[in-house]
Specification:
Blueprint (H helix, E strand, L loop, with lengths): L1 H9 L4 H11 L3 E7 L7 E7 L6 H5 L1 H9 L3 E4 L12 H12 L5 E4 L1
Parallel strand pairs: 3-4
Antiparallel strand pairs: 1-2
Length: 111
């Protein structure tokens, strides 16, 4: 969910837009807003998966959906990408990522 959260947050300028995009593009996700008294980090947004879960495909395709909707190009940078090798089914997940990402025309990935 961290991937989805960051994609939505970084492609939206207001928290209302974050919530709208999350509800529209990932309907099984419920947004969670935390308001703080700290003036630097006055609020944060996270998402919880509700009943059922999104397929990995839905989450991996989220940047493309947002880019098409907003008619923009997006660069997604993923640090420590090699950590995927520690996933329990890392080879199949890497294949899934490639199968989704290779079809995305408005997204560039920096790994």
């Amino acid at each position: 969910m961290l991937f989805s959260t960051e994609i939505i947050k970084q492609t939206s300028s207001k928290w209302e837009e974050w919530i709208d995009n999350a509800k529209r593009l990932l309907p099984r996700v419920s947004p969670k807003i935390t308001i703080r008294s700290d003036s630097i980090n006055d609020f944060s947004l996270s998402f919880d998966i509700t009943s059922g879960s999104h397929s990995e495909h839905d989450i991996l395709d989220l940047p493309q959906k947002i880019a098409e909707e907003k008619e923009i190009s997006i660069v997604v940078c993923i640090d420590e990408f090699q950590q995927i090798a520690q996933f329990s089914h890392s080879k199949s997940f890497q294949k899934k990522m490639r199968s989704v990402w290779q079809l995305q025309s408005k997204i560039s990935y920096c790994l």
